[in-house]
Amino acid sequence: MRFELNHNQGIDSDSKRKEKLVLRKNRIIFFSGGRASFVVADFVKKSYPDDNILLYFTDTLWESPDTYRFIKECSDKLKLPLLIHSAGITPMQLMFEKKLVFNNMIGDCSKLLKMRVASDYLKKQIKPKVERWLNHQFLKQADFIKDATLYFGIGIEELHREEAIARNWRPFRVEMPLIDNMIRIDNVLKEYNIMEPELYKLGFAHNNCNGRCVKAGQGHYRNLKKTMPEIFQKHMEEEYHLYMCVSAYRYILDKSVPDENQIPSHLQEEMLQELDDAYRGYFYGKCTKPKLYIHPAASASTRYMKIKKYSFMKRKGKNPEVSQLEDNEHLYTNVRNPSEPFTLREFALLENSKPEQIDLFDIGGCGCFVQF
Ligand code: SF4
Asked: Which of 6, 159, 285, 342 could form an SS bridge with 315, CB 3.0 to 4.6 Å?
């Protein structure tokens, strides 16, 4: 039997082999569940349809159920793989573990639960506690990290942050298509027939942590109270229990009081264990209330023994501290108006009785609002 070589067949299989050898460029989109990051994903997909594009979502485990609907729908309709990573702990649990009540001045939930998780994975290949894939079949090559370009959904209003973000993510190349291409984010969701995240419809500026951002301000919390009263109520209770827990913890370990009022170290360990037993189940969702716990300051008799208050929000202090500073030639008057804790419980009372005193323009600032 004669066997004839078909030259065209040879060329075809050659080019197929070569095609297989061509490495596709890796592109990772920091996908936050917000509109802007979706628009970036769409832009990258349309610009580089043949490349290896990944949607990457870092989960605080505290998101709105609708956010998970949204990110899944985006992944399905864009036909892009979605990788979800999480440190396995919520911002509230993080505060409990650190014995710290975060607010817009302190606290690193966005850094530890989002940035750190992402950078440990992408720079050091350290996998976090939780990993989940959606639409893994759309991944075009297994190594999606090598020489990847990272994309952020940051708009022109955050132009000043561009440089710092690019520096933090070296050696990766960073791009921000919303800034570089002046893309308007309207209409893209309509094009895919995707319903926008519920939180935007409720008037929130961002789709983070189900509206419970601990770094948010009065205007934001007013909207939460109005549009999701049950979430506000639960958040208010959690803030109260957290502040009592943190206050008790600090009290037990307080070194700033005179020696005779300090709790002896042999008792501290026992008291800290008792505190942990009282609150751990509550903050990890095992029970609806903490166990009965009496703050040790409640039975103390000296002026040092106080239950200190902590809160997510702050407001300007009523009693400015006035002091006089003197150098060789001048006497200065120094007025400080330190901010005071403003608990959600106090906020709710004020909102009910004197709503005109709420600062609607104070929506607060949060790393997550602008990081991804
Ligand atoms: S949205 Fe607020 S509470 Fe949630 S992780 Fe970011 S900073 Fe923390």
From this structure: 342
The encoded tokens of residue 128 equal 């976090």
> Does 117 contact ligand 1 (Cβ within 6 A)?
no
Give me ligand 1 centre to Cα 127, in Å. 21
pLDDT at 17 over 60: no
**Vertex 149 angle, CA 110 and 177, to 5°:** 80
For 248-296, how does the pLDDT look when each residue is reduced to its tens digit (9 = 90+)?
999 999 888 777 778 898 999 999 999 999 999 999 999 999 999 998 8
Percent of the chain residues past pLDDT 90, beyond the cut: 63
Establish whether residue 67 lines the binding site of ligand 1, counting it when its CB lies within 6 angstroms of any ligand atom: no
Is 225 touching ligand 1 by the criterion CB < 6 Å?
no
Ligand 1 atom nearest to 366, measured from its CA? 7
- Answering whether pTM is above 0.70, one says yes
Are both 297 and 196 inside the same structural domain? no
Coil, strand, or helix at residue 86? strand
pLDDT in tens, 226-249: 999 999 999 999 999 999 999 999
Tokens of 337: 């108006």
CATH code assigned at 141: 3.40.50.620
Across-strand partners of 19?
Answer: none
Residue 364 neighbours by CB distance under 10 Å: 20
Residues 6+ apart with CB under 8 A from 352: none
Residue 27 lies in a domain: yes
pLDDT tens profile 123-141? 999 999 999 999 999 999 9
**Atom 2 of ligand 1: nearest residue by CA position:** 213
Q: Are residues 190 and 49 in the same domain?
A: yes
